[in-house]
Amino acid sequence: MTIYAIFSDVHHRRDRLERVLAYLSTRQVDRYLQLGDLGVTPLSLLDDLPISHAFGNWEVSQLHTFPPKRQPEIASWPARLSGAGWMAAHASPVFPSECTDLAATQRYMAQHRPRWMQLFPSLLHDEKAIWEAFAELAAQERRVFFHGHTHVQAVQQLDANNRYRRLQGPIIRLHSQALTLVGVGSAGVPRDGNALRCVLFDDESWEVELIGIDDV
């Protein structure tokens, strides 16, 4: 069993990430997943944690603002994280095959010049991207996809009968025959109220806890 703490979109707010990490220190957490748009100043808070990073659109455009000695490390952050039955990324599980890490994504963008929202669509507002995300989950035989980017904590599910619904927390049970998209919200600049957002995911019980911390 592994319990993951998953967060995204800190956007330089070191003070707010400190509050999120202080809360998570009171909970059982085995591993952390950071899903991009972190910022420079909060980075050092994560150095001693058992953590995996995925890059966001901010890291792609602002890699040069990180300390030079940290840039090779951040350039190697992958587009997507995955484990048994789950995937996680900044915006969508659907990414060009060339974009294996941040550095490769910078090269892809320089060559092909896609619009930012082509690589980083909103799974809150882009209906086509939502259905493509469900299709990718099915193709990869995964049950759940975690994402940031929208700054809103939201859960969308497609059940075994292809019925779509939005789920409310705080506890979401992930059924084996359903596909679920979990927007983890923002740990720095939330757009869905005054609480800092993250989630806890138990990969044995297949439960996701939607968490809101304090008022900002």
Structural overview:
- The longest helix has 13 residues, at 127-139.
- The protein has a single domain, classed as 4-Layer Sandwich (Purple Acid Phosphatase, chain A, domain 2).
- The chain is globular and about 50 Å long.
- Strand 11 and strand 12 form a beta hairpin.
- The mean pLDDT is 96.
- The strands form 2 sheets. Strands 3-2-1-11-12-9 form a 6-stranded mixed sheet. It has a 6-stranded mixed sheet with strand order 4-5-6-10-7-8, covered by helices on one side.
- With 216 residues, the protein is an alpha/beta fold.
- The chain contains 6 helices and 12 strands.
Write the layout of secondary structure elements.
Elements: E1 3-7, H1 14-24, E2 31-34, E3 51-53, H2 57-62, H3 71-75, E4 80-83, E5 86-89, H4 102-112, H5 116-119, H6 127-139, E6 144-147, E7 153-158, E8 164-167, E9 171-173, E10 179-184, E11 196-202, E12 207-213
Parallel strand pairs: 1-2, 2-3, 5-6, 6-10
Antiparallel strand pairs: 1-11, 4-5, 7-8, 7-10, 9-12, 11-12
Mean pLDDT: 96
CATH topology heading: Purple Acid Phosphatase, chain A, domain 2
- The rough form would be described as globular
Structural class: alpha/beta
What topology, given as strand order, has the largest sheet? 3-2-1-11-12-9
Poorly predicted runs: none
Instruction: Figure out the total of helices.
Output: 6
Which sequence of SSEs, written as H and E, runs from N to C?
EHEEHHEEHHHEEEEEEE
What share of the residues does DSSP label as strand, in percent?
25-35%
- CATH H-level superfamily: Metallo-dependent phosphatases
From the alpha carbons, calculate the radius of gyration and give it in angstroms.
Answer: 16 Å
Helix content: 10-25%
The CATH architecture term is 4-Layer Sandwich
Indicate the CATH class.
Answer: Alpha Beta
